[in-house]
Each structure stands twice: as structure tokens, then as C-alpha cells.
């Protein structure tokens, strides 16, 4: 039977369809710069180093890819204009062409497509079930029951259509991998991201992935120790279609990967883009380079100490043109490593925390002139402890002054620096160009700091960190693309930068995440900020003395309380943790929360879990909390909570685990 083109869209879906159209027309330019397709050939945005100002891009190489980015932007802009023109010429959503509808679907998660459109009428059902249209799935915060339903009714019939799959917590990963083997049945899968996969599942997963024919992008975050890291590396290198790999092994592992010799027979990897986040031994890094002769871009962001045991690495890819490294090593060893791998380099980014020897401009100049003839962009960040010795600080200024010589300015390589206090006097010296794309940290300057900042008035960072009560007061920099804000404050709030200072720098309405870290947090400042940031969905707090303020504010300022879209809340404290009463107040402040990560008072753990689960069951006005994590809890606490849930028959479909003093509950 053919698909009808004259059906009427059901009235209950009108609101959802309007939201979808709004999403398409407002997000096109963003999609151009952050599209999933481009991410496969570019280094993606990731979290940055704590405490760097500004922070290196961690592999996001947009500055060297401006031309390509503009091509994407032009493509998506033309598509958006076509969509808008079609909307103006039609009298109903139903009259849009199939091509335009598929363009809309490309912006949406596969589950949203099915749940929004599949029951509207026969035409939409036919469009959605068309096997030629590929699907993207991103599972993060979802209840266990809903997730099981989506796996059974949406994912299972469509494994052959999945082009991108992202699973973002250990429960979801376990549930998915219990039901599916990601192998040849995922015939169109190109992008796979697993955040929180446990090491015991890793080897089997990588073994099955060898039969996934189209997989070219793999991102893995492993939270626990990997006992056989050597095997993991070898399995990744065997994935023949893989082009982009991002590895974050948070606790490291045991590995002894042998370096591949020039005469050794056997396959090598096709990986072109490699990002390693945390815990890679220098020997393993060198060995990985020997198996990746097609490598173009390397980013390594752990505390890397390099002690090369051989003078020359002849096996390093001649295509390696972009290197981005974080190190605390002495310049001598770091320089040896660079000279061995970087002859063809065009872009070099270095973030260094440690001694001043990294600021030897003459040594850098000599190395670049003699050994890096193709280098087009050089970006350096150095975070140095100056102490309180004036002579030491004078020597520092003598060093950095040499970076204003003609060698640097003629190449348009400009630098800035600033002084701040953090466990003594520290100084940040950085390339102005390195802070433009991902993360910028603004710190409160010393009272006697007369050094010019040399920053421009426009910065394209998406993550902005502000440290110090007065850091934003006299800042002239604007951050038009910022979507995440971290505020680290201290004391009693005296001389605190005002909301007006923040709004002058950042479009507050476009923020999606806020971190608020203050010893004696003033809840009125937080609530005022939340009132002006309606699109924030993630909130992190570090504080001890603010729940008393919440109690008072609940009486007088109900309009501010609870008027937000926050879905994820994380709270840490310096003392014993949150009580049940404080958690109740927190939920009144954030009624839409679905994920709680809390430091709690240990003896109240069972009563807190009991309250949260009963809240999910008995009050239909609340959005249920689907994922909870609590710390610190003793090893046997998960058994006590399990017994309580089963005894009171609170849930029949839940999962619970205790991992190194932190208990997770998914329901």
C-alpha cells in the first residue's frame, strides 16, 4: 500500500513539531561548526586542564580548518534557508517535502524521531521506517524502564540503520551490551562513543568491533584500572576502518606494547587522528606511534614524562603535521621527543606546568629554525610558580620579554601574560591564539600587577572559568560563544563581581552548564544567576553554608525558586555531606532534576534513598529522578539499600552498584 500524502497531523503533536522546526532553524550555524560528521575528521571538544589560563584546545583544531568550517556553514545555511522558504510556502507541516523532512530528522536523536512522528499518520510512519535514512542515538539520562522499551521497540529493529551511537553511563552501557554485540549487524555504524565502560567488558567489545565494517570514529572512557592494556591497544590497532580514536583511561593499566621495528611484517593501523586523555606511559606512546604510519594529528593530555631510549624514531608517520601536548617535563627531555617526531609539523601546541626552562625563547627559535622548517603555527602555554622572591620574578620577565623579538612577531605569533595568587604568586604566559576556541580561564590579578594582559576584546571560547571575586569586574573581553561557566569564589563575597559584569561578558541566556564553587556560597547570587540563565540543564555546587539561606528564601522568593530546567545536579561539601532535609530543599530549588550526584551524611543514606524513591512513585507532579550517585558510603551499603527497596516493593526494575565508596542507583 502506498503512503498517503493527505493525512492530518494529530493535534497532540503540534507542540512537538513546532519545537522541532524551531530547533532546525535556530541550530543550523551551530551544527555547521559542531556537526557529528565533521567531528570524525576533526579533533572534538573535550574537557580542559584544571587550572590553566587559557587552556589549550585539547585537540580542537578549528583554527587551522577555517576554510573547511566555512564550507560546512555554507552548506547548512543553504539547507536552513530552503527549510524556511518551504515553511513560508506551505500551509501545514504536512505539506513539507520528504527531502525537507529528512533534513529535519538529521537534527534529531533516533528515539525522538520515532516517539514524535511515528504515530502521526501513515506517511510519517512510512518515512521513518524507510531503511535508507540513517539514525543517531544518544543515551545518557533515561529511566531503566524507558531505556528497555526503546531498546526493544526502536533500536532492535534498526541496528542496520544506526550511523552514530553514544552511551554515557555504566548502567546504560552494561544494559546495551547485554542485549547487543556491536558487530557486523551494525553494518552502517560509523561513530561509537562509550563514556564509562568498565574494563572487564572492554576486550570483548573491541573483539566484536573488528567485524563492524564502517566504524571510523571510536571514543572510550574507562573509569577503572585496565589489567591488560597491551591487549586493548592491539585490538584497537586492528580496527581496519578506524580513522579517529579518543582514549581516556582514567586509572591507567598494565601495558608493555613492543615498538614495531621498520622490518617487522604484519598489519599497521589506519588511524589518522589520535587523542589520548590521561595515563599513557611514554613507552606506550612511542609504541603506538610505531603502529600508526598514517597518523596526521596527535593530542596527548596526561602528565607526560618522556625519556627516550633511542636517538631517532625512524618509524614516525611522515604525515604527522599537528601535535598538541601537555607536559610537566623538563625542556631537555621534551625537546628530544619533539625533534624525533616533528620534522613535518605545521602546528605545535604545548601546555606546560612546571619550571621556567620552557620559556627559553632562544632555544625555541633555534629548534624551530633548524628542525621544524614547515611550522606555521606555534602556541605555548606556561603556568609557573614564581614564589615571593622579587629576583625570581625579574628573571621571569627577562625570559618572556624575548618572545617579542622579530622572529616571533614576523610570524604573527603573539603572547600575553598575567600574574595571580594561588598558593603563592604564579604567572601564566600564553599564546593569544590558543585561547580562542574552547576554554578560557579568567583569574583575579594581583593588586600590584601592572603587566599588560594584551588580550583582545573578543574570545570564542565555549567554556569560561572565572576565579576570584573581582576577576570579572574590569574585564573587557567578551565571550559570545560561551555555553559553560565555572565560578570559583572565596571568602564572604566581599567585592564580588556583579551579575552585570557577567552579562556584559557572556550571553547568559545561552549557558547550558554552571559550576558554582564557593566556600561560603551566597545563595542569593546563585539564584539571581539561575534566574537569568533559563537554558542551564547542569549545575555543580561546592559549598557548605548555604542551605540556611535557602530556607529563608523559600518564604519570600517563590518566583525564583524552581523556575529552571536543570536536569543534572552535583553537590560536594567540605564537611560531612548533605542531610535529608537539605536534599529536600535542593529538590525544591531544582524540581526538574533527573540525575543527582551528592556527597551525603553516611548514616542517612538509607533514609535519603527511601525518600527519593518514594518521591518518584507518589508525586506525579515531579519529574522522576532516574540516576543517583552518593558518596561516601561503606561497601555493604548497596546491600542495605537493595533490601530496603525489595522489602518495601518500591521498584521491581532497578540496578545498584558500589564502586570505590560511591554508590550508584538506576531506576
List keywords for this structure.
ten-stranded mixed beta sheet; disordered N terminus; twelve-stranded mixed beta sheet; 21 helices; alpha/beta; 667 residues
What's the helix and strand layout?
Blueprint: H1 14-34, H2 36-41, H3 66-89, H4 98-105, H5 110-117, H6 122-128, E1 135-139, H7 144-155, E2 162-167, H8 170-179, E3 191-195, H9 199-209, E4 217-222, H10 229-237, E5 244-249, E6 273-277, H11 282-290, E7 297-304, E8 322-327, H12 331-341, E9 347-353, H13 361-371, E10 377-385, H14 390-401, H15 406-409, E11 415-421, E12 425-431, E13 439-443, E14 463-467, E15 484-489, H16 499-505, E16 513-518, H17 523-531, E17 538-542, H18 547-556, E18 568-572, H19 580-589, E19 595-599, H20 605-618, E20 627-631, H21 637-648, E21 655-659, E22 662-666
Parallel strand pairs: 1-2, 2-3, 3-4, 4-5, 5-6, 6-7, 7-8, 8-9, 9-10, 13-14, 14-15, 15-16, 16-17, 17-18, 18-19, 19-20
Antiparallel strand pairs: 10-12, 11-12, 20-22, 21-22
Helix pairs in contact: 1-3, 9-10, 20-21
Protein name: F-box domain-containing protein
Biased composition (Polar residues): 43-55
Region (Disordered): 34-58
Structure characterization notes:
With 667 residues, this protein is of the alpha/beta class. Among the domains are: 20-107, no CATH class; 600-667, no CATH class. The chain is built from 21 helices and 22 strands. It has a 12-stranded mixed β-sheet with strand order 1-2-3-4-5-6-7-8-9-10-12-11, covered by helices on one side. Strands 13-14-15-16-17-18-19-20-22-21 form a 10-stranded mixed β-sheet, with helices on one face. Strand 2, helix 8 and strand 3 form a beta-alpha-beta unit. Helix 20 packs parallel to helix 21 (637-648). The two termini are 41 Å apart. The relative contact order is 0.06. This is F-box domain-containing protein. Residues 90-137 form the F-box domain. InterPro entries: F-box_dom (IPR001810).
